[in-house]
User: Which sequence fits this backbone?
C-alpha cells in the first residue's frame, strides 16, 4: 500500500511539472541578442545588484525603487536570499553591491557577489545554451507538501539569462505554485517575470 502511494505521488508530481508554467519571452523578445556557441561568453561581466528595468506590458512604468527590497541579481539567479545588516544603507547606496559572472567550458556559470568590492558570496551553477539563444540555469527549485492534487501542492521555479541589446543582463524566471484538495479545489499562481540589470564592466 505504501509503495502504491509513493508511485501515485510521483505520478502526480510528474503531471504537475508537465502542466506547470513554462518560460515566456513575450515581454522582452525584441530586447535581447540571441547567443550561440561563439558569442555565449558575452554573458561574462560585472552587473548591477538592483534592476534598472522590469519587462511588464501591463505596468510599463513599474516603481523600481519599491522592488529593490525584494529583487536583486544574486537572489534572482540563485534563489538564495541575501541578508542585509542594514537594508536602508544598501538601498541608499552607502553599501555598494555588484554581481560578477564568468562562464567556463560553456556550461558552468561562476557567480560572485561583491560588497564594496569585497567578495561576500560565491556560487557555481551548471547550465545550457539552448536554441532560443538564452542560457538556462540548472538550479530549478521544486518543493511539494502532502500529496499533490489530493491534500497538498507544489512550488516550482526556474531561471534563464540573456544579454540585452544594450549589453546588459536579462534574468527571466518562471514560477508555478499549485495546490488542490481531492482533485476538486485547486488554487495557485503561475507567472513569468523578467528584469534587466546594468552592465558595469
Assistant:
Amino acid at each position: 500500500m505504501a509503495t502504491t502511494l509513493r508511485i501515485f505521488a510521483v505520478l502526480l508530481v510528474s503531471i504537475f511539472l508537465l502542466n506547470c508554467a513554462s518560460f515566456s519571452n513575450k515581454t522582452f523578445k525584441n530586447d535581447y541578442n540571441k547567443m550561440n556557441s561563439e558569442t555565449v561568453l558575452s554573458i561574462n561581466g560585472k552587473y548591477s545588484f538592483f534592476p534598472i528595468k522590469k519587462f511588464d506590458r501591463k505596468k510599463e512604468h513599474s516603481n523600481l525603487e519599491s522592488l529593490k527590497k525584494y529583487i536583486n541579481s544574486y537572489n534572482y539567479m540563485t534563489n538564495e536570499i541575501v541578508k542585509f545588516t542594514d537594508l536602508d544603507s544598501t538601498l541608499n547606496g552607502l553599501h555598494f553591491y555588484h554581481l560578477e559572472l564568468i562562464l567556463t567550458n560553456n556550461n558552468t556559470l561562476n557567480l560572485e557577489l561583491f560588497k564594496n568590492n569585497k567578495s561576500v558570496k560565491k556560487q557555481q551553477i551548471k547550465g545550457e545554451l539552448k536554441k532560443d539563444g538564452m542560457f538556462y540555469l540548472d538550479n530549478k527549485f521544486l518543493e511539494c507538501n502532502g500529496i499533490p492534487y489530493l491534500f497538498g501542492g507544489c512550488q516550482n521555479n526556474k531561471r534563464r539569462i540573456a544579454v540585452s541589446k544594450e549589453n546588459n543582463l536579462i534574468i527571466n524566471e518562471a514560477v508555478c505554485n499549485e495546490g488542490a484538495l481531492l482533485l476538486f479545489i485547486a488554487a495557485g499562481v503561475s507567472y513569468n517575470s523578467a528584469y534587466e540589470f546594468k552592465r558595469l564592466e
